Amino acid sequence: MQYAExxxxxxxxxxxxxxxxxxxxxxxxxxxPEAVEDYELAATDGSSVRLSELFGDKDTLIVIxxxxxxxxxxxxxxxxxxxxxxxxxxxxxxxxxxxxxxxxQKKFAASRNWRFRMVSHANTSFAEDLxxxxxxxxxxxxxxxxxxxxxxxxxxxxxFGPGDDFCIIWHLMDMIPxxxxxxxxxxxx
Length: 189
Description:
With 189 residues, the chain is an alpha+beta fold. The protein has helices at 3-30, 72-91, 102-112, 126-129, 168-174, and strands at residues 34-36, 40-43, 48-50, 60-65, 93-98, 117-120, 133-134, 137-138, 141-148, 151-159. It folds into 2 domains: 1-31; 33-174, 3-Layer(aba) Sandwich (Glutaredoxin). The model has no long low-confidence stretch (mean pLDDT 94).
């Protein structure tokens, strides 16, 4: 297939993907939100913080479910969030939650120069209740919460994995004809 013809087909598929994302946004706005407990989590300074307090002055809260410092893939995603945190926080509150202790989080975040807030859900049912812990351990993903008159509600969530919409590196590697070709994230290169 010639470059121009293949490139046009690729553009057409990208347009279809954009249309599907629009349909997803419509579905997200059309369903009833899920009430959640006002979990007590731990901030990196060791203090206790309620889920409802993480909103600050925003009406929307994005919580990243991160598997912690033991996961190079979760580190890859978090490294990417670091670059867009100012933009995200202009629209919504943002926090990364992991099972690591506050001290572990603080140390690891400093080693990566992360600028976003983190909370520990260690010794809570937060991740499990929201579907991000199973028999084989923790799962990565994101939940979006809103404040309501009755408390906090989750309006949407999804898991993370190679090729998802939340880590730009996969899409850039998709531009290479062989794709990632077995590449996996590391802590350093």
